[in-house]
Task: structure prediction
Amino acid sequence: MTLIQDVTTREILNERGEPTLEADVSLACGALGRASVPADVRDELRDRDDDTRYFGRGVQRALEQVRDRICLVVRGLDALDQVAVDHELGTLERLGGNARLVVSMATAQAAALALEIPLHRHLGGLCLHPFPRPLVSVAHLLPHAPDAPLADLMLAPQRHDWPFRDALRACAEVSHALDSLPAPPTSVQDALDELRHAIETCGYHPDADLAPAAELSPNASPEAILPLLDASPLPLLLADLATLDHDFRAALDAQPGLTLANTGRPSPHDPARTLALRHFTNVTDCLRAAADAHRNGTAIILDADAPATDDSFEADLAIAAGATLIRTGPLASLRAATRCNHLLRLA
Result:
């Protein structure tokens, strides 16, 4: 029997020592799914307490919501019907998104355990997607300035014939090589040059094997970005495309070999887009967004770069959603190690 029997929640800490939600969903057959939500600056304030615990960032209020409202709604539902469970969660008004998301995630975990199949197969059904490649942050190379044109600098594996373990190894080797720099770069161009030099030093080609990728800062200007791209072409640039003026967007579109990935509100004309589970209130809506992107011919980058716990849900989601890349953050972080190690086990 895969009917939901009980839901329990607790307050745990993420990798920054901040409180977040963890939920257990237990089924009548004995399967127990556990999940925790990744943190995000956009999390709903009603999920947070207003007392002095954790400077008002506690989640005791969200725990009460799960116990007093969510548990009553989902108890008795079939965990195998993720759409129905998420629909019922969506009927609850004035409820924080994180409380709904964590129960949705734990339900999917419980169903996969009951079926004795990997989570990505349960979420992806009959659609077998290739493994995503890691998109690894090396943002520590960037100069810290209020008007910096780039918000993130990343390593993007370019070889599609690389197994996940080889792509990850290359990113790890270059990341470690960058740790031995005698002095931090003083400009964005110097950071790009150092990154390309580290790629070559580790025995890789800086375009065919590994290449720098970047995310635009919200205040990035054409005068700061376009000369950088002319001097150091990038294969991938992340940006909120709706905030770019027409001429800037046209100039970026004209850059040879550059793919723009939209981090903002999606458009059917996006060549690529980021998809972050933490921006949804349930698993079903996230997978529907991935399906819509595939129908539009849009490549997906699963964004798992947020303060997280040791939950590997997003690694399975990246496979199920057919993501070409999974944005892990820096490799020297809990979120990156957890997700990458889980993908290594599945590979």
